[in-house]
Known about the structure:
Rossmann fold
Amino acid sequence: xxxxxxxxxxxxxxxxxxxxxxxxxxxxxxxxxxxxxxxxxxxxxxxxxxxxxxxxxxxxxxxxxxxxxxxxxxxxxxxxxxxxxxxxxxxxxxxxxxxxxxxxxxxxxxxxxxxxxxxxxxxxxxxxxxxxxxxxxxxxxxxxxxxxxxxxxxxxxxxxxxxxxxxxxxxxxxxxxxxxxxxxxxxxxxxxxxxxxxxxxxxxxxxxxxxxxxxxxxxxxxxxxxxxxxxxxxxxxxxxxx
Length: 242
């Protein structure tokens, strides 16, 4: 579905890939602006923390899955690493090319997280920000990420999570349910898409559960760090083999 279609496309917790992809096509043009507004600027801090966790080095090959408009991919590419920005939304990738296509060490690939078009042991590091939650089979996606990572390679997943403080968690849920939809309708191009965002965050497992999924997929040395009181969490792991 093109980002130019006028009919709003709203995904649901069934996470049909075509519907989710079409929804992101529609929000691509104003996606980054809406994120800045909804996170009160924290998205830049979270992106910087993710880049530091990946620790990209010149000459490495890095996969940024669910890259969206490639803001995170560009941040990684500025290290000198060869970065592949992959996403299943052609609208998002088109916006990413428009904004960051001049970076010579950044290329764009349309890809399904559960069936990646890359060979085994292709990447030194793989990362995924705010995308695992939108995959209809996240455990399979984690296995696919393991498959395409070199032995000893690194995984970093940045995803919305569960604030450990009950008081802050209550405030956060109020914000997501009441304030966020209004902000999204002011700044976004498809306000209904952000209703799904709130539902998917509420339905997503906590930090320890996600860590368990990562271990089950075959990763080792799994750890996480909360950002912004646990609104998001950075999960890190290593592929066995070295």
